[in-house]
Amino acid sequence: MDHNFIIWMGDLNYRIQTSVDFSTEIIKALADLYQFNKLLQHDQLQQQQKRGEAFTHFKEPPIDFKPTYKFDPSTNSWDSSEKNRAPAWCDRILYYCDDMSYIKNLSYLSHPEMIISDHKPVSATFELQVKVVVPDREKQTIDEISFKLDKLYNETLPQVELNSYEFKFEKVKFMVERTQVLKVRNIGHRPVQLGFKPTPDKQDRISKPWLSIRPDKALILTSEEVSINLTVNIDSDHVTSFNKRTDSLDDILVLNLEGGKDIFISVSGDLLSTCFGSSLETLIHVHTYVREVPTGQLLDLSMSSSWEEYDSQALSVRKAPPPLDIPKELYRLVQYLLDHGLNATALFTDGGLSSEREKIRDTLDTGGEELVGSVYSVAAVLLTFLRSLEDPVVPRSVHQRCMDASNNPTLCRQVLLQMAEVHRRCFVFIVTFLKKLLEHSQENKMDAKVLASIFGEVLMNSTREEKLSRNKKTLSQINKKKMTFLYQFLANDLTVNYK
Amino acid sequence: MDFKNPMRKFKIVFLGEEAVGKTSIITRFMYDTFDSNYQATIGIDFLAKTMYLDDRTVRLQLWDTAGQERFKALVPAYIRDSAIAIVVYDITNSASFDAVDQWIEDVRAERGDDVVIVLTGNKLDLEDRVISTEKGESKAKELNVIFVETSAKSGANIKQLFKRAVLALPSMEIEEEEEEENKKEDIVQVTPVEEEKDQSTVCWC
Q1: Where is this region: Disordered (chain B) (predicted)?
Q2: Nearest CA to B78 among B65, B62, B96, B60?
Q3: What value of ipTM does the predicted structure carry?
C-alpha cells in the first residue's frame, strides 16, 4: 500500500469484560477511583491484541482517562438507564508504522467536558517523521536511473570490431581475381546478424559488379569472428568502363548490424593499364606497351594531339609516329598460333591454363619478349582480347547489316566496305588466319562451321545489355546469322584485294 | 492509455560536415563526458536515450552520421523517418557553415515540413570564432529552423538543444491533448448514496 503511517480511530465498541465477580457496579467504582490498570486487564481490545486476534501490530498510547462510555446524555454520570451499561473504552486511537521510531505519541486524552453524546470524545497528538520529495533530488535520481537503463539498453545493441575499415587493391590486373579478408568480431553482449545493404548509387546492388562479397550475410555469436572475402575481378564485362573512365576501383560497402548501426567500408585501388577492353582505334596508336600508359589515358591516345603530348614527355619522337596497321597485341597472338598452333586440335575449346593466360596477358601489356605458354592458352587469350574490345572487330554499327546480308556473299563483301579501315584490316587479318587453320583441317580437325560459330560470336560481340534484353530464342537466331555472315568469308574468297 | 507503447519514440538524425562535433554532442548528452581525441564516425551509429521533460517522458533514437566527404552520397538515405534533424556546424569553420544549406535542403527533400530542424553552431568554447551568433541566427531565420549555439566540450546548451527540439515537435501538443482526455476518463465520479436513515443514526449498542 502506498502509505507509511496508519492511524486507526473510532468507536471500536470494545468493552470491559464483565463477569459474576466483575460487575457493572465494580467497574463504575474502579473507574471513579481511577484504578485504570485493574480495568484494562479486562479490556477486550487489549486482550485480543495480546492473543494476536486483532490489531496485532498496532500500538495504542497508554490510557490515562476514564472509560468514555456510557454516560447519560448532557451529563458526566454513568448510564442510569434500564440497561445499566458497564463503562468501557469504546473510543480508541491506534497507530502503526513499519518503523515505529518514525511516529511518536505526544498525548492521548479524553474530553469529559463534551456532554452532548453518551460517548466522550478522545484525542491524540503524534509527531511523525514524513518523507518528502525534494524536487532537485528527485530529478537527479530519475536521471541516474534513466542513465543506467539507457546504458543497459545501449549495451545490448550489436557491437563489432573490424580488422579494417578500408581495403586497398593496388595494381589489379585484368581478369586476375584478388581477395582480401574483412574480419568482423562480435564484441557485444548478444549474437549479431550482419548483412550488406544495397545502395541507390549502385542500382540497388550491395557492391559494384566487379566486387563480390562472400558471405554477404552472417550470424556471429558473442566473442566469435567471421571472415568475409572481398574479391575484385575486373573481367571483359567491366574493363571497358575502366578504360573509358566511367568506372574506377572505388566502392563503399554498407555493413549493417541488424537492430543497430551501419558501418561504411571503403574499397579502393587501381587497375593496371591493359589492352583488354580498349578499342582498335586506340591500340593502333600505342607503339609502346600499354602498361606504360596510365589507365584511363589510353582513351586519349586515339586523339593524336594527346598522343603527341604524351610522347613528347617520353623524349623520343616529337611527332606522332604513323598508326600501326593492326594492334600489335592482335598480331602477336595470331602470329604465335600461326607459328605453333596450326595442327592443334580443339585449339579454341581447350582453354589452356589460367596461370599461363595471366602471363600471356601480362606479356602483351608489358612488352615481354616472348609469349610463354601452350597454344591453347594463347588461343583463349585471343578470344578474350576480341571479346573484350570496346567495339568488336565488326563494329556494332553494322551488325544489323551483316545479319541482313548473311545469306548473300556479295552483300557480305559490301558490308566490309562500310567498316572503318582499322576494323576492316583486323577482320581480314583474322579471316586470313582462320583460312590458314582450315588448310590444316586434316590435322586439327576443324571445319569452317565450327570456326564461324566460335569467331562469329567474338568478332560481332553483343553488349551485355543486348544479351540481357533479348530472349534466348532471339539471341540464338542472332548468333546463327552472325555465324553465317562469317562463314561466307571462310567458304568463299571475299577478301581478295583487302589487306 | 496505450500500454503497448508507454513512451513516445522519436528519431533524431545528426547531420553536418566532418569534425563539427556531432558525435561529441551526442556523447555529452548521453554520458555527460567529452573526449578530446577526434575519431571519425565511419558509418551510422545508433543510440537510445530516455528524456524526462517536466511531466512527460520521450524515448529518443539518436542517429549519428559520418561527416566525411567520401560518405556524403550515402548519408541522406538515413534522414528517412526522422522527426528531428540536428544540423551542426563549427563556429570556427566557415566552410562547415556554408554546407548547412545543402544539409537542410537534403532534410527538406526527404521530410518536407514534417520535421523539426535545429541549426546548431558548436564549439562555443573556442576563441577563434568566425561565424557570429547573428550570422547563425539570421541563417536559421532565413531557413525557418530553430537555432542554438552549443559547446560539447563545456556542456553549454547541450540539454537545451535537445529540450528545444523535442518541445518543438508538433506531436507533443497532440500528446498533451490526449493526456487531458485520459485524465478526464480517469476521474471517478463520487456521488453520495442515500442510505436508510434509521441505520445511520442508530448506535449499535
Answers
A1: 175-200
A2: B65
A3: 0.82
